[in-house]
UniProtKB/TrEMBL annotation:
Protein origin, superkingdom: Eukaryota
Residues covered by the Porphobilinogen deaminase N-terminal domain: 1-93
Keyword Transferase annotated: yes
Record-given protein name: hydroxymethylbilane synthase
Length: 204
């Protein structure tokens, strides 16, 4: 995208990563269903927007995507796209049905990502991203935390470990990142986040 491009996104996490790549970008709070967002894009309200490719495929609309971002370009929210099912404790029958639906690799990756988020004590106003993958029988994890305006971004790099150690891998990655950024960073991040009101244009 060219300098000063206007990009529609309702995510502080995406905004932070976009503006870290190019601080001249202007990020506009962008909400509504897929058709509404695409119509705004066609009308020139924004120069680009970000949509889940899984959602576009589900609607047979993936042809509208001009690029699919990989994890070394932009990290997603922790556990994004994963479906969780809750049941009563001790309900063996429900657990039997749920276990049959479970994807072990996804479960492992989500647990790793959630441990990372838990160590950072993040919430919806903290731009935190993380994704775990199973590659070659090992857990690979990448995570980051950033200022909403992208002025500071701290990343874990590619952290690798055994599948059985996925939770510990995510937790340690979060603790190490938290120690590296320091308490001052978190205070500044919280102070900055509420200033980004819905519909507000941010950036240079």
């Amino acid at each position: 995208m060219p300098d000063n491009a206007v990009i529609g996104t309702a995510s502080l996490r995406r905004q932070a990563q976009l503006m870290a790549k190019n601080p001249t970008f202007k990020c506009v709070n962008f909400r509504g269903n897929v058709q509404t967002r695409l119509r705004k894009l066609d009308d020139g309200v924004v120069d680009a927007t970000l949509l889940a490719i899984a959602g576009l495929k589900r609607m047979n609309m993936d042809q509208v995507a001009t690029a699919v971002l990989e994890w070394d370009e932009m990290l997603p929210a922790v556990a994004q796209g994963a479906i969780g099912i809750q049941c009563r404790k001790g309900d063996a029958r429900s657990r039997m049905y749920i276990d049959a639906l479970n994807c072990d690799d996804t479960h492992t990756c989500v647990n790793c990502e959630r441990a990372f988020l838990g160590a950072l004590d993040g919430n919806c106003k903290t731009p935190i991203a993380g994704q775990a993958k199973i590659i070659g029988g090992k857990v690979h994890f990448r995570g980051l935390i950033a200022m909403p305006d992208g002025s500071e971004v701290y990343e874990t790099g590619n952290v690798v470990g055994e599948i059985g150690d996925a939770v510990e891998l995510g937790r340690k990655a979060g603790e190490e990142l938290k120690a590296r950024v320091g308490e001052k960073f978190f205070k500044m991040m919280v102070e900055m986040s509420p200033q980004l009101a819905p519909g507000q244009v941010t950036g240079a």
